[in-house]
What does this fold into?
Amino acid sequence: MSLLDGWLPWTLRVLTVALVVVTIGRRRLRDRKFLLKRLPIVLGGSVLFGVLCVVLVRTVGGISDPLPLGLWFWLAVFALALGLAIVCWRGSRWWQRTAAPLAMLLAVLTAADALDAGLGYYPTLADMYGELTNQALPQQVTLAQLGSIHGNTKTGRIVEVDIPDTASGFQHRSEYVYLPPAWFRSTHRPKLPVVEMIGGEYAVPDNWIRAGNAIKTADAYAAANHGFAPVLVFVDASGGFKVDTECVNGPAGQAMDHLVKDIPPYVEKTFGTATIPAKWAAAGWSMGGTCAIDLALTHPTVFGHFLDISGDLGPNKGDKNSTIAALYGGNAAEYATDDPLTILTKHKKWPKTFTGMFAVGDQESAQPKHAQQLSAALNKDHVPNQIWTGSGKHSWTFAQAAFTQELLWLAKAVQVPGAK
It folds into this structure.
């Protein structure tokens, strides 16, 4: 049951509007005094409430990315229903008084759905229920069950892992590993290449699975390539839903060390994967896209490739001074070591196999320009890279489409057997 389009979102919208009309009542819709005096006051208060929500989200919440207009509209409708409940209470029938709180409830639900539709966070009702109730992921098995999977399986499996933070000390949540069908061929298990998958800000490690549809995409690729696909590691780059580390080492923890020093050795040892940087890549969306290029540039001996989907110019918490203060405790020198444009001005000699891909949406604001700047800097250092522009805005819906589009490039870059 889709939460992004289809009958459910439209049903919520229609019912909300209908209940607001019922709250007013037919008699008041014919009352000139109500229409010219009371209703304009309630409408004005509703608009003011919507504007106040925008201001609070941007200032107190610290969210600078544009959010869908539908969110603010339906929050204003919530205020409208509340105002109508007050001014219409006297003289209303019982069903009109009941309609007002129901309209308020549905307005909140519709606002939440508008936010979800704009971000693409929960594509379906099942995705939302699964994450909020901590349900097992599709095709999920335990480490102990891996040996029981038949070698002729047509689909990959997901396994939840608790990777030791021995090198980083980074407090992280459970992470997940996708193993393609070819991994289960017991007669000859290939050392498959690996991609670390990084989500955006306000994230959980399984976002790429539920919101980004990465497992279905990887399985579809494997089905067309004799069961071969990269091993995907869905990492925790923040340690908490509201924590924004930008994948750097700083006051929020040694996130970069976790991604570079904890995860690769564990994955290589536990799952027998490839170990050379030419067969490892970092990929991500939004904050994760920024992380992907940053990890590759700062650690080319670990990651030989990056897929930056809708990322920023570099670690970002607003302006440069705010970023340095929040992420590096005010240490500008540390910031410079992680800033992609600064790194690229030093004209290092990069490995011959080092490559990158940018994917941006044609409806995004700053990301296309950022990709052009980074691509130009990479070209000066003779690093092969490309920019793919697709249709979409800054959302998980676009991230899913971009990963589907660029998995062919990614598989070839990390040398998946048979990739063309």
